[in-house]
Amino acid sequence: MIPNPRALPSKHHTKALAILRRTVFLLLLITFTGPGLSLAAQTAEEHYQTGLDQSRKGQWEAAIESFGKAVDLAPSFALAQANRGVAFSQVGKHKEALVAFEEALHLGYDQPEFRYNRGIAFARLGLYDEAATELETALKKDSRMVLTMYDLGLVYIMQKRNDEAREMVNSLYRRNNKLAKQLYDQIPPEYHVVSVDNGGALQGRVTMAGPVPRVRSFHLIHAPNIQYCSRMSDGKGHRLLYDFTVSGQGGLKDTVIAIQGVKKGRPFPQDLQKFNIARCHSDKYVIGARNSEDIVIENTDPIPHEIATYEFAESYVKQRSNRPVSPETSQVRSAFVRHDADEFLIKCNLHPFLQTRAFMVDNPYYTVTDEEGRFSIDQIPPGTYEVVAWHPFIPNQKGQIVIEPGGKSEITFEFNSKDVRRKLYHDDLDGYRFQTWYDSFENFYGGKRVDDPVEVLQELRE
Description:
Layout: H1 11-28, H2 39-56, H3 60-73, H4 78-90, H5 94-106, H6 112-124, H7 128-141, H8 146-158, H9 162-173, H10 177-186, E1 192-193, E2 200-209, E3 216-219, H11 226-229, E4 232-233, E5 238-241, E6 256-260, E7 264-265, E8 273-277, E9 286-290, E10 293-299, E11 305-312, E12 317-325, E13 329-335, E14 343-348, E15 355-361, E16 366-368, E17 374-380, E18 383-391, E19 394-403, E20 408-416, E21 456-457
Helix pairs in contact: 1-4, 1-6, 1-8, 2-3, 3-4, 4-5, 5-6, 6-7, 7-8, 8-9, 8-10, 9-10
């Protein structure tokens, strides 16, 4: 016996399915008319048209009755049966809907949206195997139905076919990024939070051999807000971005250390990460971020910033978002990337020296090296793991560690500056590049110039 109707397990699922069902209904509202109809057929057509009008007004019970009269007068009226099934679904009578859909199919009516409707009715009754079959059939008939892909992903989740749900995310990602993220967020994560008893620790150091790579220089003469942006500069009109910060003992700062292959352990940090903007400067050069994580963009400057995000994989770079952030306001961006992307960039397209780069991680066992290149990670579940040392502009280094219960492991990484891969656009630090009006106490647009009371002079670390 078919179980009692029950919705998919969250309000979000219910809302999504309801919206999709209304959309599909409109796709089914096609009228077949023609000359030479019998009186019964003409009357059936009139009842059918009445049912359509009632459906458009949301009068679903009345529509069921009208479609039923059309079917009584013209038993072979397949489209009336199909739309009667839709009306039944709208009032939660999914068993009756399936009976009507089955009759329409028997009469030869079959199309992608019709299969989708059948699939939704099955899903509402908790018959997920049948629902998956119908939704898969709909996509075989029309692979462009992104809403069907989304709901099929939800059904896969209910069947615990999470790998196939992730494949739906990958397919949706190129077609409808918003739906892809909604589906991704509902798939149970592969990483599980558990208590870690007698965990181990990892410590180590990252160094760089060879000459320290040149600092990146941005000429402030190109900045749209030079009066404010120049509050942090080398005093000659250049903003410096330190991609490689190397200590006197060779320690490399701002390298992400991530342990790979940890399937369960402590939770991710609960606090949202922040991309803090102050004097056109980000306080973090690199971070670790998990896919679909929300990051707060916090603009404390009195000027707007045009914040864009990008995803990086081996063969491509793609912009994911680009929206202004008003002065002294905050907003949230999602670090949602394609399955094969390993880097996420947040930057200002007006002030390109304002940026933070993220290495994508799948567990919370990661950290960033300090000024001496040192790092430590604790509460690691015992096991054998691979460790990645990541810096945005040099090939990754990897090593293997064994974490014993309650033990401490060590690992070191040494990069060589000859392997650096980076483009330097403004590579000239000579000369004085402030515009002449910058030296005036008058605002460029008239009136007294107002500057930040504290000017930060950047030192050339070469």
